[in-house]
């Protein structure tokens, strides 16, 4: 159409999606023939295309213009571990008890404030209680510490870019002129800050194209605002709405089941997915006696499906609501020799030895980064304890410039300051440390990242220390460090910008699914949240129990239940060929075994889409649908495909007090007729014998009466 690709800004939420978009566009524009493509469109290669995540886009803008908001272009991007380390130091300096004032709680409150574009000064002006007053104080200290370290956190990337554009009309005007078309993917997942950023760029030329599905808005807990997509027409009344209702992934039966659930949400735009795919298999519903039996059933279906259809194991995905549920499936897969990979566990770049190497590289690039400097000083061990570090900080305060701590270490190692209290061995080690950092910094422009990784690993003494330990664990750590060098080499081959800065930024902004490798064959284990945007031939949505999925935290508010329903819808629609829904009669979580009640979402599934894989499941479906209008026909009890579950259908069972108590989880608010309102802080079952489950007891911290141990039947959930 004659548009210059450099005038288009395309934003999505994961590096994986951005990479795939970029590759597709290059194929469409004829990247194999650059001369012809350039003549036709002005396309000059990937560098002319701005296709990336929100965070990568804003990081790129801050590298270019960050000086206007006090950022040096070499700023560091702190991940959650870095943020927590910094916040712990600040809380300790204030003399506050971490058990009463947890650093993670402060970080969560600060993140919410940044999502709403509320800075420290505005936050402090709004405080309404003592906790908010302390949060406001630590917020200001935290931001100052980030500035001192020439660092930003993830939320700052968006927040400070918005501030940059709001306060600098010339930069905003240039960007509006540059990006005549703004495209935003996954718009339902945007928070307020991202919404403002996109509208700042597009409000003048109004060439804004957003793609979003309100039925897949599942990140409210991290700031996503569903109103951004539901109220888009109010912001842009002249917008053209295009409904994309055809599904190319799932079978008709899977879509019918998922549509049956999501139709119960009130806050949504009316639509119903359809597909030209075949009807396919019915949705398999299985009820296990407990979590272990549920995992055994899934394992058996995986092994049988792989054998019958000759599929790789990565064709099977197990989706759960909470990370804690993975253990039973891991145990079962290990017992049966089934390889698996967990998405959302400890990422490669979050492993200790990898973060240790990266800490050195970050100090080389940004000497003011004290969080990374402290980490690098401790690897290998150099006997730099809290007292030594405090003494070095004192010396650093007397040094000029932002890199005071590193300058103090350099001065102490050279004998240029009063280093009393530092032994000769420590001074020698500090000297070698500074020499390594200074040498790498001097060769920053000529040395590849791969070479830097190798130099740090060898010259720091890190590999020698691991070799001396000689354990299987340290061998694995050494392999990971070598793999980091391989990763750096791959990055250099793939990226137009192979600088250390670009490499560290890429490592900081990778999401969990960005590091999922197709060549690694194994059953995929992940939370339903992490599965968004992915697809698998066979999907098991497990643990569908009231209080677990939907989660107990959501049950007290309609918006919470609607988000859980959307999450269930997302999980179900990951399936391409066959979908399994499972749950257990009894679930052990957090050390307690409790009776479990089927999820409320089962009653919303059209009955003629289900294949009941066990007689107990058939009874539950019948009881859950009792009294409901049978718009979709009667449920037929079918033969169990697993021989162990074959047998006559059990009669409908009524839910007793113990089953009703299964709705409760630690953290729930409850009411007692005599002692008033309190919070559940513990759950246990006592008195079980002769095959009887016994009584469920709760430890409840009452607001006025303190902690009491009572029967679960004595309280009711507070709504």
Attribute tags:
719 residues, alpha/beta, Rossmann fold, Arc Repressor Mutant, subunit A, 8-stranded mixed sheet, 5-stranded antiparallel sheet, 27 helices
Explain what you see:
The protein has 719 residues and is an alpha/beta fold. It folds into five domains: 140 residues, 3-Layer(aba) Sandwich (Rossmann fold), CATH 3.40.50; 74 residues, Orthogonal Bundle (Arc Repressor Mutant, subunit A); 222 residues, P-loop containing nucleotide triphosphate hydrolases (Rossmann fold, 3-Layer(aba) Sandwich); 162 residues, Orthogonal Bundle (PCRA, domain 4); 61 residues, Hemimethylated DNA-binding domain (SH3 type barrels, Roll). The chain has 27 helices and 19 strands. Helix 4 packs across helix 7 and helix 19 packs across helix 20. The chain is globular. It starts with 7 loop residues before the first strand and ends with a strand.
